[in-house]
Specification:
Largest sheet: 6 strands, parallel
Strand order of the largest sheet: 3-2-1-4-5-8
Low-confidence stretches: none
Helix content: 25-40%
Structural class: alpha/beta
Shape: globular
Number of helices: 5
Length: 138
């Protein structure tokens, strides 16, 4: 099974971790600079402040400053940040982009580049040079 790093410990990123762990993947959940309280609470109780449910102990927890440690040996990176957080997340990942892992987004949205709008996966592919794709759903 894959080692997957999820950047963003809010509702989207944390919810994504559940089916991944259920399928046997190794999941590392990294909070953003806005998720410190969520990660601290998860460390103390395993209960997510916003989802109001316990996260499995198999999910490893990290603060955003620990991103380099969390990324070590990762095979896939998933972004569970808001649309406004995509550029921040890209800047955090930029030093590690040559690692060759694909980036999967559960974040929907468009970015303005020069004279056109591009979907977030295209933005990440263009700016970080990694394979990027979006998870779609109903």
């Amino acid at each position: 099974m894959a080692t997957i790093v999820i950047l963003g410990a809010g509702m989207m990123g944390s919810a994504l971790a559940l089916p991944l762990v259920d399928r046997g993947h190794k999941v590392r959940l990294v909070g953003t600079h806005l998720d410190r309280e969520i990660i601290d609470h998860l460390w103390a109780t395993r209960e997510h402040l916003k989802l109001r449910l316990a996260l499995p102990r198999e999910i490893r927890l990290f603060h955003h400053e620990e991103l380099p440690v969390a990324l070590h040996g990762a095979e896939v990176v998933a972004l569970g940040v808001s649309s406004r957080g995509v550029r921040w997340a890209m800047e955090q990942l930029r030093p590690f982009a040559s690692a060759g892992w694909p980036v999967v987004l559960i974040t929907k949205g468009l970015a303005h580049i020069e004279d056109r709008l591009v979907p977030f996966p295209e933005l990440i592919t263009l700016e970080l040079g990694v394979q990027a794709a979006a998870v779609a759903g109903p």
